[in-house]
Amino acid sequence: MNETSQLNQNPAEVAAASAWHALKSCLDEGQSFVFEAGAGAGKTYSLIAALRYILLSQSRALQRNHQQVACITYTNVARDMIIAQTDGDPTIYCDTTHAFAWMLVSPFQKRLCELVPTLLGWKDRLDELQAANIVKVGYTLGRRSIENGTANLHHEDIFPVFIELMQSAKFRNMISSRFPLIFVDEYQDTNAKIVECFKSHFLGKKYAPLFGFFGDHWQKIYGDGCGAIIHDALKRIDKKANFRSTKPIVDSLNLIRRELAQEVKDPTEPGDVRTFHTNGWSGRRLTANHWQGDLPEAEAARALSTVRTELEKAGWDFTKNTKILMLTHRALAAEMGYSSMRTVFEFNDSYTRKANEIIAYFHEHLEPAARAYLSKQFGKMFIAIDASRPVMNSPADKARWASAMKRLCELRETGTIGDVLAHLASTGLPLLSDAVVRQERALADALLSGTPLTGRIKELHALHGVSYKEIIALCKYLDGHSPFETKHGVKGDQFDNVLVVFGRGWNEYDFNLFLKMAGNPSLIGARAEAYERYRNLFYVAVSRPKKRLALLFTHFLEPEAMTTLSRWFGGQPIRDIGPAL
After folding, report:
1. Residue 15 belongs to a domain with what CATH number?
2. Tens digit of pLDDT for each residue in 290-326?
């Protein structure tokens, strides 16, 4: 794959060819690099091109030396795509960062047995570890357990043991000997401690692997990601192309991000950017907590309806390849059918990012198991509930499972969350997670004692009374099977048309403040981390569309914020719909 091979190159292809030439030079010269590719640039295309170039030029030498190119990714989806596009070539080792780290540390069993008691997640199980006489360490389901002398690690345990083993020169030499080249996909989302470990022990060191970091630090969306990578041993390569969006959209992106201005694929292709705000609304806005300045719920819904109607008149089709990105969970919850979650939980992250263990259990285990059962995919059902060993040893076992799952599926449609939890507790099929059991026990003890409920226990009690159908709706949203998304669900995706709704209700985001900071950097001060969080969310959201982009702000924008908005999007219509609400 060679980005310079096309004739009559358009502006984006010319920019991409320049980046490819710089990338190929780094590979030829053994120079580690950061490949920065903004939204729509085709980062994955360049990563695959680099892997194929290595296969053409170095495959025989790598095989002769029993070596591979490592390509570590953030998700299983990315891993599978890279493997497919490189035809599963055995010269390339491609897997998630967790899997890569475990593959490297797992042979060092004696050292792992020594490290387990030092890990934070095992501090309260030291007596149990000692009594079990641990002789082996495993990592299968990603949950902590002790079975037959084996301590099974949690996902969060993998990176700490890897970092500890990296202190050993012998361990580092083993990695360098096996993997002379290591590519990191979506580097900005890679665990910051892992990246620091690579920087400390490999970058700029003799006989270390060549590192290639592919990604975009403006698209860091996960909390433990490293963001930007700066190191003297890394050459920066900017891919200043945009193969996704029309010129009106890219023009705005270039005003937002001047240091990585992009060239478009077809400067003549028609596109559209429209901005709507509600500053002219004369009613009383919300004042509570992180809702300050936003419209009341009814008016926010009316604003969305007004904008949708206007966009439909302009030719938008919301039934085909169009996404509404709700950067306010009040409106999203109402549209999707899980509005009770807002009243149950104090913080949105409890359900939108599964910070609550019960929500995580429903989404990651129970709902996939129920869907698999209804589809008669019983193998998938047992995988979803972490049943790694045979659980049906007789016809009686089969009958018990069938009865329990049938009743569970009935309660999913007719019962409350409390009904479902009670059913699971009484049957033990499927098993509740340890975290859920602990919370249920704490709630029962609090109710029995008659003491006032507070904090998480109060939230759990309220959650019990919610219809389980809201969990089904929430999981549908979390899985991305919806026209409504947040940026966590659409990163990397693209759609013909995107409407982004900016509002309050996120304890981690304030877009009025972001726009003010962007226009006056002196306001950032000690809030650099918050500014980066605001900026990345904004950038990821507005860079998804191919043809048309619309922005709706339901919260009040101060004059400084309006000035920034006009500077970025003033070449296209900006309209106040507040008076019409």
Report:
1. 3.40.50.300
2. 889 999 988 998 999 999 999 999 999 998 889 888 8
